[in-house]
Amino acid sequence: MIEISHLSKRYHATAAVDDATFTARPGRVTGFLGPNGAGKSTTLRILLGLSAATSGTATIDGRRYRDLEHPLRTVGALLDGAGAVPERRAVDHLRWVAQSNRIPRARVDEVLELVDLTGARRQRVRTFSLGMTQRLGIATALLGDPQVVVLDEPTNGLDPAGIRWIRTLLRDFAAQGRTVLVSSHQMAEMSDTVDDLVIIDRGRVVVRGTLDEVVAGHLSLEEAFFAALATGAAR
Ligand code: ADP
């Protein structure tokens, strides 16, 4: 389980995250939605130990990332720009990550199969399309077979087939009992994928609840989203 509690992050005058509190639970896909600049990446980077909070906590199974005994086996993450060395072959990239995290080498073939990159395993990363790069990132995140998966804008730049593939994958993870936290600024893409929602705007959580709770009284998730931004009211 992921727990964000009274989390704040300031960059000089900017409150990138402002007293955010929410959870993401096992067996559910939690959508972390908000416009560009809302504070989604900052929150996820703190959760993954890549940035320090100004105050508050972000934990996975009650522990901060840096206190996890086996980080890669606990949480798998796909972050923007966190990629592989372009000159490396896909399979070598995965072997390197596996080896440096003491993950059995056989797992590399499993994750390549899982993301449908077996045929491209010997290809250099620089020749990959955006969709393939995203899938390699997801394969890397899954190497340690983590129970918690965090993805920052995984559908960015993907074509409809790629988006559909990601959505199915997220649903499968949740069905396996994993905790899935996925950020997006595209409401329409998320409405039939998520169970729970957290909407953030200008660093503040403005809405959180189940999909049904959030959409209640609105025609669509998109409409609920814009209403939430307009009122800025927490539910
Ligand atoms: P999102 O992921 O929702 O698009 P971010 O978390 O990237 O939003 O950014 C939230 C706010 O914090 C924005 O105003 C952004 O400009 C600012 N910000 C993010 N990272 C930094 C940084 N390293 N230095 C200064 N400001 C930052």
TrEMBL record:
SMART domains: AAA. GO terms for molecular function: ATP binding; ATP hydrolysis activity. Pfam families: ABC_tran. Residues 2-227 form the ABC transporter domain. Transmembrane segments: none annotated. This is ABC transporter domain-containing protein. The keyword ATP-binding applies. The keyword NADP does not apply. Belongs to the ABC transporter superfamily.
